Amino acid sequence: MNKIVSKEQFSANVTKLVVEAPLIAKARRAGHFVIVRCGEKGERIPLTIADSDVQQGTITLVIQAVGESTKKIVALEPGDYLTDVVGPLGQATHIQNYGTVLCCGGGVGVAPLLPIIRAMKAAGNRVVSVLAGRSKDLIILEKEVRESSDDVIIMTDDGSYGKQGLVTAGVEEVIKREKVDYCVTIGPAIMMKFVAKLTKQYEVPTEASLNAIMVDGTGMCGACRVTVGGKTRFVCVEGPEFDAHQIDFDELMMRLKGAQ
C-alpha cells in the first residue's frame, strides 16, 4: 500500500499525485516507469515517473483520466492509498553531453519528458524545450520545465498561449536558428511521427517514448510490441524509448486505435 501525499488538478482530465514510495524514489532514473493498481481487482496501469524526492521518499505521477481504472486513481485524495506501486521498470534514458538537446512534449507527454530535461541539463547540455497542447489549460509543468531549460517555446493549436501552431513549427524554428545535436520527443503518436519525420529531414538523431502502448509492464501480454527498424520490439522491457526514425508509427497508431 502506497499513501498519496498530495494531489493537484492540472486540468479536467489530468491530475498530479505525489505518492510515498521511498525505494522507488531512490532507485528511479529518467525514463523509468511504475505499474500502479487501485483496488485488489484493479487493472495494472503503467505510469512514467515524472519526479521523485529521495529525502521525502516520494514519487510524482501525472495521470490522464481516460478509462475506468485511471478515473478511480485520480478520484483518490491525500491520505488514501494505492494498492500497489511496482518499479522502477523499463530502460532508463541514455543521458550524455550531446551539445544542444531539443526536448519536445505534447500534452501529458511533458510529464515523462521533465526528468529527461533535468538529466540532460545536469549532463551539461544546452536544453531547448518545446511544449505543445491544444490550448493554454493543457500546457502542464511549464514552471518546472523552464527551471531546467535554456529556452522554452510554447505552441498551442488555438493560439490561446505562446505561439499558434503545431509542435513541429516550434521544432523547425529551433533547428533553423541553431545546430541541434539530439532530440527527444514524447506525446501522442501522431505528434511523435511528424516530429520524427521533420528531424529526419534535418538529420537530427531523435528518440521517442512509446509508453502509451504499454499494458502489463512485463512484456508477457505482448500488447506493447512495436516494429523498430523492421524488428519486433517490446516497449515495456526494451523501451519505452527507441530511435524515432526507425519506428513504424503507422502500425503503432493502428494498434492504438484498435485498443481504444
Account of the 3D structure:
The protein is α/β, with parallel strands linked by helices and 260 residues long. It is built from eight helices and 16 strands. The strands form three sheets. A seven-stranded antiparallel sheet has the order 6-1-2-5-4-3-7. The longest helix is centred in the middle third of the chain and has 13 residues, at 110-122.
The count of DSSP E runs of length 2 or more, i.e. the number of strands, is 16
Q: How helix-rich are the residues, as a percent range?
A: 25-40%
Measured by DSSP, the beta-strand proportion falls in 25-35%
- Overall geometry: globular
Low-confidence stretches: none
N→C terminal distance: 29 Å
Coarse structural class: alpha/beta
Number of domains: 2
CATH architecture of the largest domain: 3-Layer(aba) Sandwich
CATH level 3 topology of the largest domain: Rossmann fold
The averaged pLDDT comes out at 88
Q: What is the fourth-level CATH superfamily of the largest domain?
A: Nucleotide-binding domain of ferredoxin-NADP reductase (FNR) module
Structure annotation, total helices: 8
Order of helices and strands: EEHEEEHEEEHEHEEHEHEEEHEH
Strand order, main sheet: write it out: 6-1-2-5-4-3-7
